[in-house]
Structure formats: structure tokens, C-alpha cells
Amino acid sequence: MLGEILRVFLRPQFPELLLTHVELSALAVVIAALIALPVALAVRNTPLGTAVAINVGNVGRAVPSLALLALALPFLGFGFAPSLVALTALAVPPILINATTGLQEVSGEVVDAARGMGLSEAQILRDIQLPIAAPVIFAGVRTSAVQVVASATLATFIGGGGLGDLIVEGFQRGDEAILLAGAISVAALAVATEVLFGALEKVLTPKGLRLSRRKQTK
């Protein structure tokens, strides 16, 4: 069985399937961030806007990934583009919720003190709100990325390609080696994404916040 799985990994088309999966996932997360972050920034100082953004994000998270892919199919047809649209819609809610929550949780007293010191709204956002909210925001991006990598497997059902093609092929042919090769590849990619974004989150967290967290855990 192990030899058969390795033969699947050595197929000439395997790197292309892996690259398609990574490209589809990465583009979806980047586009989602470009959509969700400006919205979170726009509503950060309005309680009503914040509540609406969080509720919309929660509704979005309740929609199954397969349903999003099915909804994209009648309007955009088969292929890479409809898969990208569906996965982007899947990626937006976690980023939107965490970004909105992270910016909302920045202490109002700290913001007021910054205004009292003469800082502009842009300076407050750049120097205070974003650094403090960064760990929460990046946690949302990490959650979104892992979720998209796993869900991109379903893109094969609307012609999006990726590692899901191996899983479907394994089912169709009744070949456990092909099926396991696809499943192992997706699982390994999801774990690698989690580890990578976890490391980036630590790097991007301000040193003062890291020290504060360590003191709280002691």
C-alpha cells in the first residue's frame, strides 16, 4: 500500500494538482482579506456597524462550503474562477469577525488618551489600534486559511482542480492508494498552513503583548 501511495505522489501531474490547490487557496485568502479588512476598519468606531459586520460574518460561517460551491455553479459555470469565488466567500467571515472584534476590543481609554496627546485618527489606527488588534486579526486569517485549504478539496466537483481530483479518482476507481494519497496531501497541506500562520502570528505580535500574555499565563 505504501509503495502504491508513493507512486501516486510521483505522478507527473501531482505537482500541478498541488500547485493548483495552493494557488486557489492562497488567492481566496488574499482576496478575502482585501474585502474583510477595509470593512472592519470602516466600522471600527461605530458600535452599530461593528455589530452588523459581526452578525453578517456569523451568518456567512453558517453556510456550508459545498453549498457555496453549488451556488457559484449556475452563475459562473465550471472551472477555476467559480471555485475561487466560492472559496473567497468562505474565507471572508473568519477574517471579518476577528478583525472587527479585535479592533473593537482596543480600550477606549487608550484611544482617548492618544487623542488627548494630539494623535490623528490615522496615527491612532497605525500606532495603537492595529498593533493591539494584530494577534486577533491574524488568528482570523489563520483560521480562514486552514478552512480554505481543507474546503478547496471540494472545488473538484465544479472543475476547480486541486488535490480533490485524487480523492474523487480514488472513489471512482475504488483505489484506496489514490484516495489515501489525496487525503494525506490535503491533511499535510492544512497542517503546514496552520504551522506557518501560527509562526507568522507570533512574529507579528508586538513584543509588549507577548510579554503581557506570558505574565498572564504564569
Brief description of this entry?
This protein is about 85% helix and about 0% strand. By secondary structure, it is mostly helical. The mean pLDDT is about 85.
Sum up the structure in keywords.
single chain, 218 residues, mainly alpha, 10 helices, elongated
Report on the structure:
The protein is mainly α and 218 residues long. The chain is 83% helix and 0% strand. The protein is built from ten helices and no strands. The chain is elongated and about 70 Å long. The termini are far apart.
Record the SSE blueprint.
Blueprint: H1 2-9, H2 14-43, H3 47-62, H4 65-76, H5 80-104, H6 108-116, H7 121-151, H8 164-173, H9 176-204, H10 207-217
Helix pairs in contact: 1-9, 2-3, 2-5, 2-7, 3-5, 4-5, 5-7, 6-7, 7-9, 8-9
What is the count of helical runs?
A: 10
Distance between the termini: 48 Å
Poorly predicted regions are: none
Order of helices and strands: HHHHHHHHHH
What is the number of strand segments? Answer: 0
Largest sheet: none
* Percentage beta strand: under 5%
Give the C-alpha Rg.
Answer: 21 Å
What structural category arises from helix and sheet content?
A: mainly alpha
Helix content: over 70%
Give the overall silhouette: elongated
Mean pLDDT: 87
